[in-house]
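Below is a filled-in request sheet from our internal design queue. Each sheet records the structural input a requester submitted and the sequence that came back. We keep these sheets so that new team members can see what a complete request looks like end to end.

REQUESTER: design group, bay 2
PRIORITY: normal
MODE: inverse folding
CHAIN LENGTH: 230
BACKBONE (tokenized):
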């Protein structure tokens, strides 16, 4: 009887050992995944800190060098006013206002910006097709290719500038973009940390920036490229 019990224990031992090894391997896998997740979260938060600090230090150039043309991405009156001012001061020969609402007329834009009527007639183009920053980049690229511009002043808000440069640079590979950030709120010295509204805008924009960065890394061919010569 005793020998039979010993045989049963001997037969059960390999199964117990295999279960123990499997559980140990599973614990290692879970531990490694947890460590990787913590590292990823740490890099994500550090990246957000860098992004917010970088954006908060951006300033509007006092006297930018002239360029071939100017592109402004709609989203606020201050952006339009800045772009019109650059055009009036001769910083570019032509201006594209990208992302205008389909129902907004040229006359309404002219009145809203108090721009010169003759200037609007001769030197300002309006893009109503773009619905977001990706659309801004696609429509702007068509416009730049059509006119053969090589140096462009890009006007948008400071928090929007990093993503805009990524999306534009992804398509305008033959043109140099000169950033002209418009600053509505002074967020340097960590001011964004104590302003919930600013923090929310920067955090949202950071996540959109990461998605734009992914599009730059992945070799995605722009849809309009095949029709560029048409």
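RETURNED SEQUENCE:
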């Amino acid at each position: 009887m005793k020998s039979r019990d010993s045989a049963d224990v001997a037969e059960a031992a390999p199964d117990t050992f295999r279960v123990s090894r499997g559980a140990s391997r599973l614990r290692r896998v879970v531990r490694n995944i947890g460590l990787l997740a913590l590292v990823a979260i740490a890099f994500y938060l550090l990246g957000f800190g860098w992004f917010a600090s970088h954006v908060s230090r951006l300033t509007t150039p006092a006297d930018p060098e002239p360029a071939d043309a100017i592109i402004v991405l709609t989203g606020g009156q201050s952006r339009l006013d800045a772009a019109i001012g650059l055009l009036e001061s001769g910083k570019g020969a032509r201006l594209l206002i990208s992302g205008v609402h389909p129902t907004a007329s040229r006359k309404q834009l002219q009145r809203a910006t108090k721009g010169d009527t003759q200037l609007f007639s001769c030197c300002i183009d309006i893009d109503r097709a773009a619905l977001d920053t990706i659309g801004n980049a696609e429509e702007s690229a068509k416009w730049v290719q059509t006119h053969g511009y090589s140096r462009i002043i890009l006007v948008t808000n400071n928090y929007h500038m990093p993503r805009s440069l990524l999306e534009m640079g992804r398509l305008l590979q033959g043109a140099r973009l000169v950033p002209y950030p418009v600053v509505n709120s002074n967020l340097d010295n960590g001011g964004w940390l104590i302003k919930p509204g600013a923090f929310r805008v920067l955090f949202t924009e950071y996540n959109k920036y990461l998605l734009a960065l992914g599009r730059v890394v992945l070799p995605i061919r722009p849809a309009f490229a095949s029709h560029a010569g048409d």
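SHEET NOTES:
- The chain has seven helices and five strands.
- The first strand starts at residue 69 and ends at 73.
FILED BY: M.R.
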